[in-house]
Amino acid sequence: MPEPSTDTPTHIARRSLLAQLDKTVYQLGKRRRSDASVHNIRKELKRARAAIRMIRECMGIMEYRHDNALLREAARPLTPIRDAKVLLQTLEQLDSKKGTGRRGFLARFQKLLEAKRRVARLQLRPAELIAAARVLRGVRRRAATLPESRLAKPHPRGLEHAFKKARAAFAVARQRGTDESLHEWRKQTKYFANQLEMVAPFGSKLFEKSHAQAKQLADWLGEDHDLAILREQIYEHAKGEDAPAVNREVRELIGGVTRRRKKLQRWSWGVACIAAGPHVIALSRAWVFLRAPVRTLPRQEGARTHPVSLPTSDR
Known about the structure:
Layout: H1 9-28, H2 35-54, H3 56-59, H4 61-75, H5 79-94, H6 104-123, H7 126-144, H8 148-151, H9 158-176, H10 179-199, H11 205-237, H12 248-270, H13 277-290
């Protein structure tokens, strides 16, 4: 009797999860961590959460919820450092006077963000990182010992579940258009993109096309979210003589944020990043039955087979 393939979605997701947890535990064990390494740790944990979603049926719903919550909490102490770093980068990209020296509100606002960044680094306690690493090793141990019979379970719905959640979040964001709904759309799309990235090297070209589209959309929505946070910070600190109604510099900065957000949202509404969803669902199911990567699949009526052309950022 032939051995079961180890290129099924659940096997790939489990391997990816173990590799991401190994990288994260190693990074957490370092004595010194740059802002870039902190950001990379958070990204690895997001990829790990996408991977664990792919094997949720193999784990059992209660075990999945428990370990998914542990992954989420492990990233929490790193969030203030990431946010402070990204706000400074976003301000740099918006400021048309960079390189010529900042004055007035912009100079004061930049110093304020730099101070918040320093405080965030000082508040990151080594004990929290040691505890996070210990928790992640426990998650890894449980994932590594999942029995083969569970990983070979038929009809894994990981990709299908991620696709439906991203599509539902898109519908809510389209209807409400709030910062919160746009951010939720971004998060669900990012999970879908990370899952597609795992299986793309083993499957159809359709995975690669869908991954490229989902990743681009998540990047646009992520930038939009960063701009929304920056706008809140500007309004919070632009008081008195720096109030937008009085200070032209502040009005121009807010105007730049608004124009960029409108452009990003227009691109996001326009791109059909999950247009290949029906194919992804069908490929995921067929993959399990054949126990090998599926290379081709008959076209479904009404389904798109080519990605939408993506506009080039003019920043």
